[in-house]
Amino acid sequence: MKHPKLLYPFVVNSNWSKTRVIESYSQFSYTDSGKDILDLSLGNAGCFMLGFNRKDIIDYVSEQMLKNPFVSGEYMTTNEAVLNLSEKLFDLSNGYKSLFTLSGSDAVESAIKLATMYNPDRQKIIGFQSSYHGSTFLVSSIGSIPEMTQHWGKHINCCVLPSFDIELIRKEISDANCIVIESCSWNNGLDTLSDEFWKELRALCTENNVVLIIDDIAMCGGKTGKFFGFNPYANPDIFCLGKSFSGGYFPLSACLVNDKIYQSVKDKFLAHGFTYSFSLSGVYCTLKYLEILEKENHYENFESTLARAKFVMDNLVSNGSVLSYKNYGLVFKLTIKPTAEEVFYNNGINVGVWNSKSDTSILLIVPLNASSEYFNKLQTRLQNACSLS
Hints:
This protein is of the alpha/beta class. It has 2 domains: 13-50 and 298-387, Aspartate Aminotransferase, domain 1, CATH 3.90.1150.10; 56-295, Type I PLP-dependent aspartate aminotransferase-like (Major domain) (Aspartate Aminotransferase, domain 2, 3-Layer(aba) Sandwich). It is built from 13 helices and 14 strands. The strands form 3 sheets. A 7-stranded mixed sheet has the order 4-10-9-8-7-5-6, sandwiched between helices. Strand 7, helix 8 (195-207) and strand 8 form a beta-alpha-beta unit.
């Protein structure tokens, strides 16, 4: 293979000989050198929750783009599709208004900007060490992924707490502008925070007039049996959506604000956006994805899909292939004996970029429309790979 004339993100580029050239996709797999590879991350952190072969989504977006390919999103310009999506999200969220953005990083940055417009006299941003909010300078500073911060350090306004400890938060919150926290941190191993934690966090933010921002980017889109993946007791002031928000095919992210934030910022100039401001193809894609989730009863079928997934995981634990597992909806963390990524790939499994730092656990996402064939492949290939460790 020729040396690629590009730079790959999140890898060491001198390892170019490991480049994988994908030939085609099927429902939940892709083909590499004629071999079927089951993609456990569904296009990176579960963007494609219905798989890779939804021609109906692609056709719908293509048809709409022929009619109206672009909306700038600035200077009070819009179209019916944008208004329609904002109305649907307003109804789904019980009253949050939308700011559409380009990526997850962009959504979190816009949330912090809105929080600062609400709290202009405060600059301190509280985050948590085991979190991930994106790869731009500000949002990478809120978490603690070393590869993101090693070259330029962290933004001086960011206060990163070592754990999700409510007493630590209580000590730091009084002069904070906002708190940024994930619905459930995959980087923290899917340790679920309790209802009581979310109630106390919400109360602390209210008492101290601190904006509570929830990063729901990795967990939204149906992964938990509902479109929004955060704990209902959190009651955020702002929350951010991305990844499977659009169903994957055409990306879109969003920042949703409650009425308190909206009333505070609506009379101020919102200096945020880029050349495209957001992707209109992503808006069309999200509209179609929302329609499919309802029409194909994916919420109603969620519990049976989750039960089938847990049945597979229980089998893997009982036969010794997997030591233990935990889950947040259809997002699973499996604890395994040390196993190299190449072993999984050689057994027809792509474990995804978010597993690149560990050989003793893997994260995977089960699709909403997982078939019997999918579960059979998943169990057989995981069992074969883990038995070689």
